[in-house]
TetR/AcrR family transcriptional regulator (Bacillus methanolicus PB1), 376 residues
Amino acid sequence: MDRKQLIIEAATKSFSLFGYKATTMDQVAKLANVGKGTIYTFFKNKEELFDEIISTLIKEMKSAAESSFDPSLSFHENVHRALFKILEFRRKHQLTIKLYEEGKEMGTPAVMDVMEKMETAILNYIKEKVVSAIETGQIKKCDPELTAFVMLKLYIALIFDWEKKHEPLDKEEIAELFEQYIFKGLSN
Amino acid sequence: MDRKQLIIEAATKSFSLFGYKATTMDQVAKLANVGKGTIYTFFKNKEELFDEIISTLIKEMKSAAESSFDPSLSFHENVHRALFKILEFRRKHQLTIKLYEEGKEMGTPAVMDVMEKMETAILNYIKEKVVSAIETGQIKKCDPELTAFVMLKLYIALIFDWEKKHEPLDKEEIAELFEQYIFKGLSN
DNA sequence: GATTGACTATTTTGTTCATTTAGTCATTTC
DNA sequence: GAAATGACTAAATGAACAAAATAGTCAATC
Protein backbone atom coordinates (compact mmCIF):
# COMPACT_ATOMS: atom_id res chain seq x y z
CA MET A 1 0.00 0.00 0.00
CA ASP A 2 1.43 3.33 -1.12
CA ARG A 3 1.49 5.42 2.03
CA LYS A 4 2.46 8.61 0.26
CA GLN A 5 -0.48 8.30 -2.09
CA LEU A 6 -2.81 7.58 0.82
CA ILE A 7 -1.66 10.75 2.51
CA ILE A 8 -2.12 12.81 -0.63
CA GLU A 9 -5.60 11.45 -1.16
CA ALA A 10 -6.61 12.06 2.45
CA ALA A 11 -5.22 15.59 2.39
CA THR A 12 -6.91 16.38 -0.94
CA LYS A 13 -10.21 15.17 0.46
CA SER A 14 -9.86 17.25 3.61
CA PHE A 15 -8.67 20.40 1.83
CA SER A 16 -11.60 20.07 -0.57
CA LEU A 17 -14.07 19.61 2.24
CA PHE A 18 -12.81 22.02 4.88
CA GLY A 19 -10.18 24.21 3.22
CA TYR A 20 -6.51 24.59 4.05
CA LYS A 21 -6.63 26.18 7.49
CA ALA A 22 -9.34 23.95 8.88
CA THR A 23 -7.50 20.82 7.83
CA THR A 24 -5.29 19.47 10.63
CA MET A 25 -2.39 17.14 10.16
CA ASP A 26 -3.90 14.82 12.78
CA GLN A 27 -7.04 14.66 10.66
CA VAL A 28 -5.04 13.88 7.54
CA ALA A 29 -3.12 11.17 9.38
CA LYS A 30 -6.31 9.63 10.69
CA LEU A 31 -8.02 9.79 7.30
CA ALA A 32 -5.00 8.18 5.69
CA ASN A 33 -4.77 5.53 8.42
CA VAL A 34 -1.22 6.56 9.05
CA GLY A 35 0.75 7.87 11.99
CA LYS A 36 1.23 11.61 11.90
CA GLY A 37 5.00 11.23 11.85
CA THR A 38 4.76 9.32 8.59
CA ILE A 39 3.45 12.39 6.82
CA TYR A 40 6.67 14.16 7.76
CA THR A 41 8.81 11.46 6.18
CA PHE A 42 7.29 12.38 2.81
CA PHE A 43 6.62 16.10 3.22
CA LYS A 44 8.65 18.73 5.00
CA ASN A 45 5.56 20.44 6.34
CA LYS A 46 1.88 21.16 5.77
CA GLU A 47 2.59 23.73 3.10
CA GLU A 48 4.76 21.37 1.07
CA LEU A 49 2.05 18.73 1.13
CA PHE A 50 -0.38 21.37 -0.05
CA ASP A 51 2.02 22.48 -2.78
CA GLU A 52 2.40 18.97 -4.11
CA ILE A 53 -1.35 18.57 -4.33
CA ILE A 54 -1.72 21.86 -6.15
CA SER A 55 1.11 21.08 -8.55
CA THR A 56 -0.63 17.85 -9.44
CA LEU A 57 -3.91 19.71 -9.85
CA ILE A 58 -2.26 22.19 -12.20
CA LYS A 59 -0.77 19.35 -14.24
CA GLU A 60 -4.15 17.61 -14.41
CA MET A 61 -5.88 20.77 -15.52
CA LYS A 62 -3.26 21.37 -18.16
CA SER A 63 -3.54 17.87 -19.55
CA ALA A 64 -7.34 18.03 -19.42
CA ALA A 65 -7.22 21.23 -21.45
CA GLU A 66 -4.54 19.80 -23.73
CA SER A 67 -6.46 16.61 -24.41
CA SER A 68 -9.45 18.62 -25.60
CA PHE A 69 -7.24 20.62 -27.92
CA ASP A 70 -7.48 19.71 -31.58
CA PRO A 71 -4.99 21.51 -33.86
CA SER A 72 -7.15 20.83 -36.90
CA LEU A 73 -9.90 23.00 -35.44
CA SER A 74 -9.99 26.78 -35.23
CA PHE A 75 -8.58 28.63 -32.22
CA HIS A 76 -12.03 29.84 -31.49
CA GLU A 77 -13.42 26.31 -31.43
CA ASN A 78 -10.52 25.13 -29.31
CA VAL A 79 -11.13 27.84 -26.74
CA HIS A 80 -14.69 26.59 -26.50
CA ARG A 81 -13.54 23.05 -25.93
CA ALA A 82 -10.89 24.00 -23.41
CA LEU A 83 -13.39 26.18 -21.56
CA PHE A 84 -15.89 23.34 -21.43
CA LYS A 85 -13.27 20.96 -20.16
CA ILE A 86 -12.08 23.33 -17.48
CA LEU A 87 -15.64 24.08 -16.44
CA GLU A 88 -16.39 20.39 -16.11
CA PHE A 89 -13.14 19.88 -14.30
CA ARG A 90 -13.88 22.69 -11.90
CA ARG A 91 -17.22 21.25 -10.96
CA LYS A 92 -15.58 17.97 -10.14
CA HIS A 93 -12.87 19.61 -8.16
CA GLN A 94 -14.37 21.00 -5.02
CA LEU A 95 -10.83 21.95 -4.09
CA THR A 96 -10.43 24.94 -6.39
CA ILE A 97 -13.71 26.46 -5.30
CA LYS A 98 -12.96 25.95 -1.63
CA LEU A 99 -9.53 27.49 -1.99
CA TYR A 100 -10.80 30.44 -3.97
CA GLU A 101 -13.27 31.20 -1.21
CA GLU A 102 -10.73 30.72 1.56
CA GLY A 103 -8.25 32.99 -0.20
CA LYS A 104 -10.84 35.67 -0.64
CA GLU A 105 -12.55 35.74 2.72
CA MET A 106 -9.80 34.58 5.06
CA GLY A 107 -6.69 35.58 3.14
CA THR A 108 -4.78 32.52 4.38
CA PRO A 109 -1.22 33.23 3.12
CA ALA A 110 -0.47 29.67 1.96
CA VAL A 111 -3.70 29.69 -0.01
CA MET A 112 -2.97 33.09 -1.55
CA ASP A 113 0.45 31.86 -2.67
CA VAL A 114 -1.00 28.78 -4.27
CA MET A 115 -3.79 30.65 -6.03
CA GLU A 116 -1.25 32.99 -7.53
CA LYS A 117 0.77 30.01 -8.72
CA MET A 118 -2.34 28.55 -10.31
CA GLU A 119 -3.28 31.82 -11.94
CA THR A 120 0.21 32.19 -13.40
CA ALA A 121 0.11 28.63 -14.76
CA ILE A 122 -3.26 29.23 -16.40
CA LEU A 123 -2.18 32.58 -17.81
CA ASN A 124 0.94 31.06 -19.33
CA TYR A 125 -1.05 28.26 -20.87
CA ILE A 126 -3.56 30.62 -22.46
CA LYS A 127 -0.80 32.97 -23.55
CA GLU A 128 0.98 30.18 -25.38
CA LYS A 129 -2.20 29.27 -27.23
CA VAL A 130 -2.85 32.90 -28.10
CA VAL A 131 0.67 33.26 -29.51
CA SER A 132 0.21 30.32 -31.86
CA ALA A 133 -3.25 31.53 -32.87
CA ILE A 134 -1.74 34.85 -33.88
CA GLU A 135 1.07 33.10 -35.75
CA THR A 136 -1.37 31.01 -37.73
CA GLY A 137 -3.40 34.11 -38.44
CA GLN A 138 -6.50 32.83 -36.69
CA ILE A 139 -6.92 35.92 -34.59
CA LYS A 140 -5.84 39.50 -34.90
CA LYS A 141 -2.47 40.63 -33.68
CA CYS A 142 -2.69 41.49 -30.00
CA ASP A 143 -0.64 41.42 -26.81
CA PRO A 144 -0.78 37.72 -25.82
CA GLU A 145 -0.19 38.37 -22.14
CA LEU A 146 -2.88 41.01 -21.95
CA THR A 147 -5.25 38.87 -23.96
CA ALA A 148 -4.70 35.89 -21.67
CA PHE A 149 -5.27 38.18 -18.71
CA VAL A 150 -8.51 39.55 -20.14
CA MET A 151 -9.81 36.08 -20.99
CA LEU A 152 -9.11 34.74 -17.52
CA LYS A 153 -10.61 37.77 -15.81
CA LEU A 154 -13.73 37.52 -17.92
CA TYR A 155 -13.99 33.83 -17.12
CA ILE A 156 -13.60 34.40 -13.38
CA ALA A 157 -16.05 37.29 -13.44
CA LEU A 158 -18.67 35.16 -15.21
CA ILE A 159 -18.14 32.12 -13.02
CA PHE A 160 -17.69 33.62 -9.59
CA ASP A 161 -18.85 37.23 -9.54
CA TRP A 162 -21.96 37.01 -11.68
CA GLU A 163 -23.35 34.28 -9.45
CA LYS A 164 -23.33 36.55 -6.44
CA LYS A 165 -26.33 38.51 -7.65
CA HIS A 166 -27.77 36.45 -10.48
CA GLU A 167 -28.63 32.95 -11.56
CA PRO A 168 -25.47 31.03 -12.41
CA LEU A 169 -24.64 30.79 -16.10
CA ASP A 170 -24.38 27.34 -17.61
CA LYS A 171 -21.57 26.04 -19.81
CA GLU A 172 -23.27 26.93 -23.07
CA GLU A 173 -24.10 30.45 -21.98
CA ILE A 174 -20.55 31.11 -20.89
CA ALA A 175 -19.15 29.81 -24.16
CA GLU A 176 -21.65 31.95 -26.04
CA LEU A 177 -20.72 35.07 -24.07
CA PHE A 178 -17.04 34.48 -24.71
CA GLU A 179 -17.76 34.30 -28.39
CA GLN A 180 -19.96 37.37 -28.30
CA TYR A 181 -17.64 39.62 -26.33
CA ILE A 182 -14.13 38.44 -27.05
CA PHE A 183 -14.26 37.02 -30.56
CA LYS A 184 -17.04 38.61 -32.54
CA GLY A 185 -17.28 41.94 -30.75
CA LEU A 186 -20.39 44.01 -30.18
CA SER A 187 -19.94 46.49 -33.01
CA ASN A 188 -22.28 46.44 -35.95
CA MET B 1 -24.26 78.82 9.45
CA ASP B 2 -25.69 75.59 8.06
CA ARG B 3 -25.10 73.04 10.80
CA LYS B 4 -26.18 70.10 8.69
CA GLN B 5 -23.69 71.03 6.00
CA LEU B 6 -20.95 71.48 8.58
CA ILE B 7 -21.64 68.00 9.88
CA ILE B 8 -21.58 66.51 6.39
CA GLU B 9 -18.32 68.22 5.58
CA ALA B 10 -16.70 67.15 8.84
CA ALA B 11 -17.87 63.58 8.40
CA THR B 12 -16.70 63.45 4.77
CA LYS B 13 -13.29 64.70 5.85
CA SER B 14 -13.02 62.16 8.62
CA PHE B 15 -14.30 59.25 6.54
CA SER B 16 -11.80 60.18 3.83
CA LEU B 17 -8.95 60.39 6.30
CA PHE B 18 -9.64 57.49 8.63
CA GLY B 19 -12.34 55.40 7.01
CA TYR B 20 -15.82 54.58 8.27
CA LYS B 21 -15.07 52.45 11.27
CA ALA B 22 -12.29 54.63 12.65
CA THR B 23 -14.46 57.75 12.47
CA THR B 24 -16.26 58.41 15.73
CA MET B 25 -19.31 60.55 16.13
CA ASP B 26 -17.49 62.52 18.86
CA GLN B 27 -14.78 63.28 16.34
CA VAL B 28 -17.30 64.41 13.73
CA ALA B 29 -19.03 66.62 16.30
CA LYS B 30 -15.74 68.16 17.35
CA LEU B 31 -14.61 68.69 13.74
CA ALA B 32 -17.94 70.30 12.91
CA ASN B 33 -17.86 72.44 16.06
CA VAL B 34 -21.19 71.05 17.04
CA GLY B 35 -22.56 69.15 19.99
CA LYS B 36 -22.88 65.44 19.35
CA GLY B 37 -26.62 65.56 19.94
CA THR B 38 -27.00 67.99 17.04
CA ILE B 39 -25.86 65.31 14.60
CA TYR B 40 -28.77 63.17 15.71
CA THR B 41 -31.29 65.93 14.99
CA PHE B 42 -30.31 65.67 11.30
CA PHE B 43 -29.39 61.99 10.95
CA LYS B 44 -30.97 58.97 12.54
CA ASN B 45 -27.59 57.32 13.07
CA LYS B 46 -24.03 57.00 11.82
CA GLU B 47 -25.00 54.84 8.90
CA GLU B 48 -27.59 57.28 7.66
CA LEU B 49 -25.07 60.10 7.76
CA PHE B 50 -22.70 57.88 5.78
CA ASP B 51 -25.44 56.99 3.30
CA GLU B 52 -26.26 60.63 2.64
CA ILE B 53 -22.62 61.36 1.90
CA ILE B 54 -22.36 58.42 -0.47
CA SER B 55 -25.61 59.28 -2.24
CA THR B 56 -24.19 62.73 -2.92
CA LEU B 57 -20.95 61.16 -4.15
CA ILE B 58 -22.85 58.88 -6.54
CA LYS B 59 -24.80 61.85 -7.89
CA GLU B 60 -21.55 63.73 -8.43
CA MET B 61 -20.02 60.75 -10.20
CA LYS B 62 -23.01 60.40 -12.44
CA SER B 63 -22.96 64.02 -13.45
CA ALA B 64 -19.18 63.85 -14.03
CA ALA B 65 -19.75 60.91 -16.35
CA GLU B 66 -22.70 62.58 -18.02
CA SER B 67 -20.76 65.76 -18.66
CA SER B 68 -18.12 63.77 -20.52
CA PHE B 69 -20.75 62.22 -22.74
CA ASP B 70 -20.76 63.59 -26.28
CA PRO B 71 -23.67 62.49 -28.49
CA SER B 72 -21.72 63.32 -31.64
CA LEU B 73 -19.21 60.59 -30.83
CA SER B 74 -19.70 56.85 -31.29
CA PHE B 75 -21.21 54.70 -28.58
CA HIS B 76 -18.04 52.89 -27.68
CA GLU B 77 -16.04 56.10 -27.55
CA ASN B 78 -18.64 57.54 -25.22
CA VAL B 79 -18.75 54.47 -23.02
CA HIS B 80 -15.04 54.62 -22.66
CA ARG B 81 -15.04 58.30 -21.80
CA ALA B 82 -17.79 57.88 -19.24
CA LEU B 83 -16.23 54.85 -17.58
CA PHE B 84 -12.84 56.44 -17.46
CA LYS B 85 -14.27 59.56 -15.86
CA ILE B 86 -15.96 57.47 -13.22
CA LEU B 87 -12.87 55.46 -12.39
CA GLU B 88 -10.65 58.51 -12.45
CA PHE B 89 -13.09 60.19 -10.13
CA ARG B 90 -12.97 57.21 -7.86
CA ARG B 91 -9.22 57.31 -7.78
CA LYS B 92 -8.90 61.01 -7.16
CA HIS B 93 -11.41 60.98 -4.40
CA GLN B 94 -9.68 60.09 -1.15
CA LEU B 95 -12.99 58.85 0.21
CA THR B 96 -13.55 56.16 -2.40
CA ILE B 97 -9.99 54.88 -2.09
CA LYS B 98 -10.26 54.68 1.67
CA LEU B 99 -13.58 52.92 1.45
CA TYR B 100 -12.36 50.51 -1.22
CA GLU B 101 -9.50 49.52 1.06
CA GLU B 102 -11.66 49.28 4.16
CA GLY B 103 -14.19 47.16 2.33
CA LYS B 104 -11.52 44.84 1.01
CA GLU B 105 -9.36 44.33 4.06
CA MET B 106 -11.77 44.84 6.93
CA GLY B 107 -15.08 43.99 5.33
CA THR B 108 -16.92 46.60 7.42
CA PRO B 109 -20.58 45.83 6.67
CA ALA B 110 -21.70 49.44 6.27
CA VAL B 111 -18.84 49.99 3.84
CA MET B 112 -19.60 46.84 1.89
CA ASP B 113 -23.23 47.93 1.56
CA VAL B 114 -22.22 51.29 0.27
CA MET B 115 -19.70 49.91 -2.21
CA GLU B 116 -22.36 47.63 -3.57
CA LYS B 117 -24.69 50.56 -3.91
CA MET B 118 -22.02 52.40 -5.85
CA GLU B 119 -21.36 49.46 -8.13
CA THR B 120 -25.06 49.07 -8.78
CA ALA B 121 -25.33 52.75 -9.65
CA ILE B 122 -22.45 52.45 -12.14
CA LEU B 123 -23.89 49.26 -13.64
CA ASN B 124 -27.30 50.84 -14.07
CA TYR B 125 -25.76 53.84 -15.74
CA ILE B 126 -23.86 51.68 -18.24
CA LYS B 127 -26.87 49.45 -18.78
CA GLU B 128 -29.00 52.42 -19.71
CA LYS B 129 -26.40 53.51 -22.25
CA VAL B 130 -26.19 49.97 -23.64
CA VAL B 131 -29.95 49.80 -24.05
CA SER B 132 -30.04 52.98 -26.10
CA ALA B 133 -27.05 51.85 -28.18
CA ILE B 134 -28.92 48.67 -29.07
CA GLU B 135 -32.05 50.68 -29.91
CA THR B 136 -30.13 52.99 -32.22
CA GLY B 137 -28.47 49.97 -33.81
CA GLN B 138 -24.96 50.99 -32.83
CA ILE B 139 -24.22 47.62 -31.29
CA LYS B 140 -25.54 44.11 -31.65
CA LYS B 141 -28.46 42.86 -29.62
CA CYS B 142 -27.22 41.57 -26.27
CA ASP B 143 -28.21 41.29 -22.63
CA PRO B 144 -27.70 44.86 -21.37
CA GLU B 145 -27.20 43.84 -17.76
CA LEU B 146 -24.62 41.21 -18.60
CA THR B 147 -22.92 43.55 -21.01
CA ALA B 148 -22.70 46.31 -18.41
CA PHE B 149 -21.30 43.76 -15.98
CA VAL B 150 -18.68 42.53 -18.44
CA MET B 151 -17.66 46.07 -19.35
CA LEU B 152 -17.24 47.15 -15.74
CA LYS B 153 -15.34 44.00 -14.81
CA LEU B 154 -13.04 44.41 -17.79
CA TYR B 155 -12.37 48.01 -16.89
CA ILE B 156 -11.67 47.24 -13.26
CA ALA B 157 -9.40 44.38 -14.29
CA LEU B 158 -7.46 46.59 -16.68
CA ILE B 159 -7.21 49.55 -14.34
CA PHE B 160 -6.74 47.95 -10.93
CA ASP B 161 -5.71 44.31 -11.35
CA TRP B 162 -3.30 44.62 -14.27
CA GLU B 163 -1.27 47.15 -12.31
CA LYS B 164 -0.55 44.63 -9.58
CA LYS B 165 1.94 42.77 -11.75
CA HIS B 166 2.59 45.05 -14.73
CA GLU B 167 3.18 48.60 -15.78
CA PRO B 168 -0.06 50.59 -15.57
CA LEU B 169 -1.91 51.09 -18.84
CA ASP B 170 -2.59 54.63 -19.92
CA LYS B 171 -5.91 56.06 -21.00
CA GLU B 172 -5.28 55.51 -24.71
CA GLU B 173 -4.14 51.92 -24.26
CA ILE B 174 -7.21 51.12 -22.25
CA ALA B 175 -9.44 52.72 -24.84
CA GLU B 176 -7.78 50.68 -27.56
CA LEU B 177 -8.02 47.43 -25.60
CA PHE B 178 -11.65 48.00 -24.84
CA GLU B 179 -12.35 48.56 -28.50
CA GLN B 180 -10.28 45.55 -29.48
CA TYR B 181 -11.85 43.06 -27.07
CA ILE B 182 -15.40 44.22 -26.56
CA PHE B 183 -16.33 46.02 -29.73
CA LYS B 184 -14.33 44.67 -32.64
CA GLY B 185 -13.57 41.18 -31.37
CA LEU B 186 -10.45 39.16 -31.98
CA SER B 187 -11.74 37.01 -34.83
CA ASN B 188 -10.34 37.41 -38.28
C1' DG C 1 -37.28 75.27 20.34
C1' DA C 2 -32.75 74.28 19.15
C1' DT C 3 -28.45 72.79 21.10
C1' DT C 4 -25.69 70.45 24.12
C1' DG C 5 -22.59 67.16 26.56
C1' DA C 6 -22.84 64.12 30.59
C1' DC C 7 -24.78 59.68 30.77
C1' DT C 8 -25.98 54.71 29.56
C1' DA C 9 -26.18 50.59 27.00
C1' DT C 10 -23.73 48.34 23.70
C1' DT C 11 -19.68 47.27 20.97
C1' DT C 12 -15.02 46.91 20.52
C1' DT C 13 -10.52 46.05 22.20
C1' DG C 14 -6.96 44.22 25.12
C1' DT C 15 -5.44 40.44 28.11
C1' DT C 16 -5.14 36.11 30.14
C1' DC C 17 -5.31 31.47 30.06
C1' DA C 18 -6.75 26.91 28.16
C1' DT C 19 -6.94 24.39 24.04
C1' DT C 20 -5.42 23.08 19.65
C1' DT C 21 -2.09 22.13 16.33
C1' DA C 22 2.32 21.80 13.57
C1' DG C 23 6.25 19.58 13.82
C1' DT C 24 9.86 16.38 16.53
C1' DC C 25 11.95 12.32 18.14
C1' DA C 26 12.57 8.41 21.22
C1' DT C 27 10.40 4.08 20.94
C1' DT C 28 8.23 0.32 18.54
C1' DT C 29 7.32 -2.69 14.66
C1' DC C 30 8.30 -5.73 11.01
C1' DG D 1 17.85 -1.58 10.82
C1' DA D 2 14.76 1.05 8.19
C1' DA D 3 10.15 2.62 8.36
C1' DA D 4 6.41 3.87 11.07
C1' DT D 5 4.44 5.73 15.05
C1' DG D 6 2.11 8.62 18.57
C1' DA D 7 3.22 10.88 22.94
C1' DC D 8 5.49 15.14 23.45
C1' DT D 9 6.75 20.30 23.02
C1' DA D 10 6.64 24.85 21.46
C1' DA D 11 3.91 27.85 19.13
C1' DA D 12 -0.44 29.38 17.46
C1' DT D 13 -5.15 29.94 18.15
C1' DG D 14 -9.25 31.02 20.36
C1' DA D 15 -12.46 31.47 24.48
C1' DA D 16 -13.59 34.14 28.33
C1' DC D 17 -13.41 37.91 30.75
C1' DA D 18 -12.23 42.81 31.98
C1' DA D 19 -11.45 47.42 30.41
C1' DA D 20 -12.02 51.03 27.17
C1' DA D 21 -14.33 53.22 23.58
C1' DT D 22 -18.33 54.53 21.19
C1' DA D 23 -23.18 55.09 19.38
C1' DG D 24 -27.06 57.03 20.64
C1' DT D 25 -30.27 59.41 24.47
C1' DC D 26 -32.25 62.98 27.13
C1' DA D 27 -32.65 66.26 30.91
C1' DA D 28 -30.55 70.61 31.45
C1' DT D 29 -29.16 74.88 29.14
C1' DC D 30 -29.11 78.64 26.06
